[in-house]
Description:
2 copies of one chain form a homodimer. The first copy, chain A, is of the alpha+beta class. Chain A has helices at 18-23, 44-53, 73-80, 128-139, 160-168, 210-223, 236-241, 277-285; strands at 5-6, 28-32, 35-40, 56-59, 65-69, 93-95, 98-99, 105-107, 110-115, 118-122, 144-146, 151-156, 180-185, 188-193, 202-207, 230-232. Chain A has a 6-stranded mixed beta sheet, with helices on both faces. Chain A has a 5-stranded antiparallel beta sheet with strand order 6-9-10-5-11, with helices on one face. The longest helix of chain A is centred in the last third of the chain and has 14 residues, at 210-223. Chains A and B meet through strand 1, strand 2 and helix 4 of A and strand 1, strand 2 and helix 4 of B.
Amino acid sequence: MKNYSIAKSRRLRGTPYTSRIEKQGVTAYTVYNHMLLPAAFGSIADSYEHLKKDVQVWDVAAERQVEIQGKDSAKLVQLMTCRDLSKSKIGRCYYCPIIDDSGNLVNDPVVLKLAEDKWWISIADSDVIFFAKGLASGHKFDVKIIEPVVDIIAVQGPKSFDLMEKVFGKIIKELKFFGFNYFDFEGAKHLIARSGWSKQGGFEVYVQNTQSGQRLYDHLFEVGEEFNVKPGCPNLIERIESGLLSYGNDFDNNDNPLECGFDQYVSLDSEINFLGKEELKKITLH
Amino acid sequence: MKNYSIAKSRRLRGTPYTSRIEKQGVTAYTVYNHMLLPAAFGSIADSYEHLKKDVQVWDVAAERQVEIQGKDSAKLVQLMTCRDLSKSKIGRCYYCPIIDDSGNLVNDPVVLKLAEDKWWISIADSDVIFFAKGLASGHKFDVKIIEPVVDIIAVQGPKSFDLMEKVFGKIIKELKFFGFNYFDFEGAKHLIARSGWSKQGGFEVYVQNTQSGQRLYDHLFEVGEEFNVKPGCPNLIERIESGLLSYGNDFDNNDNPLECGFDQYVSLDSEINFLGKEELKKITLH
């Protein structure tokens, strides 16, 4: 297959780590949320083998956040997702299909509950921010919706636990799957979740302090030699093998969550109010 | 500057013309509305010279449509744009900044009025469909919102008029700037507008009949030799020289239309109701 260049422009935003991955040998990009997402560092098969064995550091800043804050924030977040968040806890991540009035998928983000009135929606590749703004405006919700400066570094692979312990101390290993907390790196606090777009285990660092994040990126390589750390990116082979679906690739706004096997995240029997609930109920009756 | 490959995937959709432009020598892509948009056929400078002199055929299928139909469609379209559409006419295109509650830009599409209750929003690079769906849901508007199958072919450059006359007859030259009508090609009707993302003159064919559109694409090259027709794409040099701004490159959701010189499309003195009107009024008072 012939290779075509990507024409860079400000519209396809770079990340705080782009210059680093280009020095490290990135060979291909995709575009995700209007941002450059590395897609290959040479052979994807070699990268797959390495990811399953050692540890990789990924520039996944393209996983953008939609921050929803304010009195009606919980109501708006719940309206957008078919997953029951009524018992959700601060410090936890939730995989939440977002659906529209027709019951069709808009996105399949991970939602982080930062406070009772503050949420981050860590999105797949569609402009959830405008869906949220439209809904908030129509419902006259008291919320503030922004895309905050957050540029995620993922640390993935079986040796990610030892590498992260070396940087953040033993305490990082106490983080439960899909839990998050704040950890110190050289005096700066970073929100870190035990999550990531592979099934090889690992962490995502939600970098808000850009300079510290860049230092952290470099530091992971400086101290990671003993774990054979390498740069990487979400790996097509691994993610398909692991059954991780991708909005835009495997499903889109023409599909509903029940068709995608997301049944466990569709709370039709709950009391909660979300878009498309009646439509999805009709589908289950067929 | 080093070249990086674009990693193709279904998420970065191809167009009905992708296989054709790849045979014709496209060298770089950008991504626009989750779709491949050609960005270069070799030298951009050579392409610029050619565009100003002759005629080019462009695969701009990435200019997607948001179709809004139904009883409340006019109300929803007007709510989204600061341009007064109360006197808008069927068969005309309107450049309409779309803004949010804060008065900031969401997109800067061309709006086509197809009927009193049917509109196409021909969008720049952001998911306007989800903004529209959110607003419609919140306001309980009686509308149907879809992304129809429309894959635009643009014919641009000073000789576009003669080339299009050769295909569609003299009548195509009667089309006024930003007017559209339906024209026959080998028995299929095509919506054609006198518009396009250059200032060299030309047309955009809103292809709904894909097979006929592919035939048309080929036909333009078959009969266009005398006009020195070549494949092309929106040209960075020409569009900057012509002062055509680009959402995501030159402005984005952090900017308001007054900052972008769109004053003539901001109808603050009208009776119409649109999002962000009060915010923009405050800005003009400063």
